[in-house]
Amino acid sequence: MKLIVTGSLGNISQPLTEMLVAQGHDVTVMSSDVKKKAAIEALGASAATGSIADVDFLTATFQGADAVYAMIPLSFTEPDLGEYLRRMAKNYVQALKATQVKRVVVMSGWVADLVKIENVENEFDDLEVSTTFMRPGSFYTNFYQSIDLIKGKGLMGKLLTLRYSGLWPLMTGKTGLLMGNCGGDDRIIFVSPKDIAGAVAEEIVLMPVQNTIRYVGSEELTCNEAAGIIGTAIGKPWLKWILLSDKAMLQGLKMAKVPEKLAETLVEMQAAMHSGEPLENFHRSNPKMGKVKLADFAKEFARVYHAK
């Protein structure tokens, strides 16, 4: 099959590309960075350089494709993140309609149906294409963004990188704490990007008659259990994940000079996770859990942590 992978060589797209090439598919990887061309070709895929903000580029790239994996990279330069996400989703829809691609797998989030800004899925409603929405839990790789803070180089108030997973903890490395208005004994679905890639690889070659939703997870843990696993791996077994009120979380984000609208959105998303409803939806879908456990990732995390 001729398959299009968006997301350049990111945490999901690179292992996904490797899997699809190994299965014998003709894979084209889209990237906005021309410097990634050689690395993409080294994986056995073709490179298409351009932006998903360019509908003409999308349309040209999708021509003749059997299926597309569509994800939207987040932007902090946009004044309205929700409007940006919806605009990029509409670009995908326009290009898919123009090229008559029959299959698309869309990266979404496990709180997508609970938070307005997350629900770009609605933009695909009138698309007459076999569509699957991937709803992964919180990425293991989010923890990489906390390294400097765990080392004591940052204080509470620094925002970690925003992810579709819906988890944006704050950390104070000097006290060994994770903080957020989702934390403590809240139960979270954590997921390895490799397991997400494996799930996408399974879905992209299918052709369900009706649109489907697939939740993806690797391990269910409380926030404190996850903090303990990461902390133990780096020699800080006391690492805890403190549950803040929505008000305290919002104040912390504002202290970090996060734009007010974005700060409110982040609080809303963590509040949804704290409610437990995303976890109920996850279990209701009866998904097959992935293979990579947080303890496995923690070993990789520790190597990176100690190397910095």
- CATH domain topology of the largest domain: Rossmann fold
Kindly give the count of domains. 2
Low-confidence parts: 154-175
Relevant CATH superfamily of the largest domain: NAD(P)-binding Rossmann-like Domain
Q: Biggest sheet, open or closed, and with what strands and sense?
A: 7 strands, parallel
- What's the CATH C level of the largest domain? Alpha Beta
Global geometry: globular
Amino- and carboxy-terminal Cα gap: 41 Å
Query: How would you spell out the order of helices and strands?
Result: EHEHEHEHEEEHEEEHEEHEHHHH
Strand order of the main beta sheet, please?
A: 3-2-1-4-5-6-11
- Compute the number of strand runs: 13
Q: How large a portion of the residues is in β-strands, by DSSP E?
A: 15-25%
Determine the structural class based on helices, strands and strand pairing.
alpha/beta
The chain-level mean pLDDT equals 88
User: What would you report as the Rg, rounded to the nearest angstrom?
Assistant: 19 Å
- How many H/I helical runs? 11
| CATH structural architecture of the largest domain | 3-Layer(aba) Sandwich
Q: How much helix is in the residues?
A: 25-40%
Protein name: NAD(P)H-binding protein
Pfam families: NAD_binding_10
InterPro entries: Ergot_Alk_Oxidoreductase, NAD(P)-bd_dom, NAD(P)-bd_dom_sf
